[in-house]
């Protein structure tokens, strides 16, 4: 009897949770509360408002007319050009960013190259909007610095050759300024994961450099490459400030059309703008979902 009575306090002391352990979840929720509030105010509620407004008319009545109008030739053309620009900048950004990351991390360059490239990439990947548009107009506009230097010293008229900073090629080139650095930041951990032992094993078995990349490196990198390309695609597809400041209304892309529908004086149709935004959310959301899935797959393969 005495033995059991002695063991009971010991058992209860083991099962009882200390006060600090009970307060830990509460403190954790308080720590993440700013993020949850931010996501609610600037992501969840605006997306819900878009979904509701896309199915309403100006009087607030339910309608499918806004969704039907998305299939008009003008709107479909805007989506098509936006998809093409986003795909072009994503593909080129993926290739150039991969080459830069490989050269800086595994190319045998001086040690200071890598931190310098990483620092620049962190800054350049966030440099967009009106400042970026002004920088490219000052550099590659009709009276831009590079344009004038080519005309003066090489007798080459850049705009006479068919190039224009206000065109498809000009906007794609501008997007590459932040797409390539973003790719460097994304793909750098995957490039670091390539082990030297894999190349040495390939060479010891008589494999060439091409065989190493074809059978070892690229199969390891491809989930990260495709996922990064999807993220770059979504990043370019949702860009509005750079395109609007650079081209104005001269290029019919969906972000500029959306801006005209919500804030314009002539094409003002707020609910159609909501429908345009909803279509963009679905496209960028699908791209981001693909990126998340591929990133998890690459992490499992690396583990």
TrEMBL record:
<dbReference type="Pfam" id="PF00528">
    <property type="entry name" value="BPD_transp_1"/>
</dbReference>
<keyword id="KW-0812">Transmembrane</keyword>
<feature type="domain" description="ABC transmembrane type-1">
    <location>
        <begin position="79"/>
        <end position="293"/>
    </location>
</feature>
<feature type="compositionally biased region" description="Low complexity">
    <location>
        <begin position="9"/>
        <end position="20"/>
    </location>
</feature>
<keyword id="KW-0813">Transport</keyword>
<keyword id="KW-0472">Membrane</keyword>
<dbReference type="InterPro" id="IPR035906">
    <property type="entry name" value="MetI-like_sf"/>
</dbReference>
<feature type="transmembrane region" description="Helical">
    <location>
        <begin position="216"/>
        <end position="234"/>
    </location>
</feature>
<feature type="transmembrane region" description="Helical">
    <location>
        <begin position="85"/>
        <end position="105"/>
    </location>
</feature>
<feature type="transmembrane region" description="Helical">
    <location>
        <begin position="274"/>
        <end position="294"/>
    </location>
</feature>
<feature type="transmembrane region" description="Helical">
    <location>
        <begin position="241"/>
        <end position="262"/>
    </location>
</feature>
<keyword id="KW-1133">Transmembrane helix</keyword>
<feature type="transmembrane region" description="Helical">
    <location>
        <begin position="26"/>
        <end position="45"/>
    </location>
</feature>
<comment type="similarity">
    <text>Belongs to the binding-protein-dependent transport system permease family. CysTW subfamily.</text>
</comment>
<keyword id="KW-1003">Cell membrane</keyword>
<feature type="transmembrane region" description="Helical">
    <location>
        <begin position="158"/>
        <end position="178"/>
    </location>
</feature>
<dbReference type="InterPro" id="IPR000515">
    <property type="entry name" value="MetI-like"/>
</dbReference>
<protein>
    <submittedName>
        <fullName>ABC transporter permease subunit</fullName>
    </submittedName>
</protein>
<feature type="region of interest" description="Disordered">
    <location>
        <begin position="1"/>
        <end position="20"/>
    </location>
</feature>
<feature type="transmembrane region" description="Helical">
    <location>
        <begin position="117"/>
        <end position="137"/>
    </location>
</feature>
């Amino acid at each position: 009897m005495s033995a059991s009575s002695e063991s009971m306090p010991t058992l209860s002391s083991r099962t009882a949770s200390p006060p600090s352990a009970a307060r830990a979840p509460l403190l954790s929720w308080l720590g993440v509360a700013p993020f949850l509030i931010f996501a609610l105010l600037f992501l969840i509620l605006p997306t819900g408002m878009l979904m509701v407004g896309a199915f309403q008319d100006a009087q607030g009545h339910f309608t499918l007319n806004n969704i039907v109008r998305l299939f008009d030739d003008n709107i479909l053309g805007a989506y098509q050009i936006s998809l093409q620009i986003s795909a072009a900048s994503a593909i080129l950004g993926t290739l150039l960013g991969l080459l830069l990351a490989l050269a800086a991390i595994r190319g045998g360059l001086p040690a200071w190259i890598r931190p310098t490239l990483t620092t620049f990439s962190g800054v350049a990947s966030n440099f967009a909007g009106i400042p970026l548009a002004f920088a490219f107009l000052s550099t590659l506009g009709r009276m831009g610095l590079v344009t004038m230097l080519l005309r003066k010293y090489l007798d080459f008229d850049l705009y006479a050759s068919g190039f224009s900073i206000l065109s498809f090629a000009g906007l794609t080139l501008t997007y590459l300024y932040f797409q390539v650095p973003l790719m460097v930041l994304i793909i750098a951990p995957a490039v670091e994961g390539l082990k030297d032992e894999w190349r040495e094993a390939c060479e010891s078995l008589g494999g060439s450099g091409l065989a190493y990349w074809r059978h070892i490196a690229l199969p390891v990198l491809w989930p990260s490459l495709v996922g990064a390309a999807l993220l770059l695609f979504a990043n370019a597809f949702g860009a509005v400030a750079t395109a609007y400041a650079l081209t104005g209304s001269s290029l019919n892309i969906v972000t500029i059309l959306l801006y005209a529908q919500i804030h314009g004086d002539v094409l003002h149709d707020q609910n159609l703008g909501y429908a345009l935004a909803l279509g963009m959310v679905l496209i960028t959301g699908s791209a981001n979902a693909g990126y998340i899935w591929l990133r998890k797959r690459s992490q499992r393969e690396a583990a």
